[in-house]
Give the backbone structure.
Amino acid sequence: MDEGNKLQFPSLPVSKEDLLDWAYPMRREMQEILPGLFLGPYSAAMKSKLPDLERQGITHIVCVRQNIEANFIKPNFPHTFRYLVLDIADNPVENIIRYFPTTKEFIDNCLATGGKVLVHGNAGISRSAALVIAYLMETFGMKYRRCGCNPLTLCCVHTRDAFSHVQERRFCINPNVGFVHQLQEYEAIYLAKLTIKMMSPMQLGRSFSLQAGMTGSRKRSLEEDEDFGAMQVTAAQMS
């Protein structure tokens, strides 16, 4: 890629709240991961929590659940907040990557209008945490985790990572192993997507010419990756 087309990302903002010493009861509360972006459990969005949500200035909520949870994890305030409801199972074989673009668009639209958004599942540990981590990765160009080197030696440019940033604010997060693998894969997917957006028509033409010269198996592999990263998700949005 030409130097002028080098991907650039905004700096990671610091939330207004200072990092607090983690205590077990905090699992049942929501924490601010970025200014305006909160992560927590369903208990932070229950009907009894409306005063807390309004005090925090919440305007949007991402509600993560699967069908069997719909009776007890639900949008409780459809006339007060804008909802994005996602049907995701906390299962290592669940394809959570397909929900990342929809979630990012919802969060971006919220923050761009001065709103604040809460992302919650049941416990706020696996599914919702994975969605927030993916949002940080794509928005700020972060890796899921640092490489294994000692960051104090400055031998690695990746001195910040999305998982650590979220865990510092909500210590109990623990995406399941399948979600972890997909978050690791997502770095290449979102970088490729952003790179294509920045390329000029001439650069795209050269890229397609190179792809046309690939062996059939390699070309099919790339096409499958693109299809996997571009899968659309149907999510209920209520206003």
Observations:
- The first strand starts at residue 31 and ends at 34.
- Confidence is low (pLDDT under 50) at residues 151-158, 217-239.
